[in-house]
Amino acid sequence: MMLDSTASLRGIVSAAEGKFEVGTGFLPKPSDAGKGGVIIGGASLWLMNNKSEDEQKAAWEFMKYLAEPQTQAYWHVNTGYFPITTKAYDEAIVKENLEKYPQFQTAVDQLHQTEPNTATQGAVMGVFPEARQITETAIEEVLNGQKSPQEALDKAAQEIGSKIETYNKTVKYEVFLDH
To answer: What is the crossing angle of helices 92-100 and 69-79, to 10°?
Structure first.
């Protein structure tokens, strides 16, 4: 059993093909935890305003291409990342992929069943990769009987808090709001 990003699903399924079947499931949570959910963690596109107008226009045209349903369908099928538009799910390549590899449906179902709340609105922090790894380790320790859920949670919270504190001391940032 492993916990990993949906972005690695294509590689995992392809590597196992003909050897064994890869199963997928929702991210685990305690049965008494109430609503669960997932967040989108990667593959963001950013357009910076510190380049020439021509470069920004070209970048915008490229971003529009990347957002097209056909492009998103191809991206989804060949990585496992979620498409950013639901119209991508109507593309034949996605339907054919789901028929052959139903494992891709699991993450889509969990995402669409997630109700937005503070915990599922996304993580905007400089130590996101480290925090995700610490969280995954904590889940594994609980599932392997190495720690109680409370022990694993407390340890993870302390480690992540420490990393955030260090990050905040070393990074200067400004928030720009466009009204």
So the answer is: 20
pLDDT in tens, 16-65: 999 999 999 988 777 787 777 777 766 667 787 888 999 999 999 999 99
Rg (CA), the chain: 19
Nearest Cα neighbor of 38 from 139, 105, 108, 131 is: 108
- Quick one: residue 127, left, alpha or beta (phi over 0 = left, psi -120 to 50 = alpha)? alpha
With a CB cutoff of 8 Å and minimum separation 6, the contacts of 175 are none
Q: Give the 3-state secondary structure of residue 174.
A: coil
The CA-atom distances, in angstroms, between 140 and each of 22, 81, 91, 160 are 19, 23, 36, 16
Distance CA 109, CA 38 (A): 11
DSSP label at residue 161: H
Q: Which ranges of the chain have pLDDT less than 70?
A: 41-44, 119, 122-124, 172-179
The token pair at 32 is 């008494």
**Nearest of 44, 27, 47, 24 to residue 36 by alpha carbon:** 27
Q: Is residue 7 within 8 Å of 43, Cβ to Cβ?
A: yes
pTM confidence score: 0.65
In this structure, what are the phi and psi dihedrals at residue 61, rounded to the nearest 5 degrees?
Answer: -60, -40
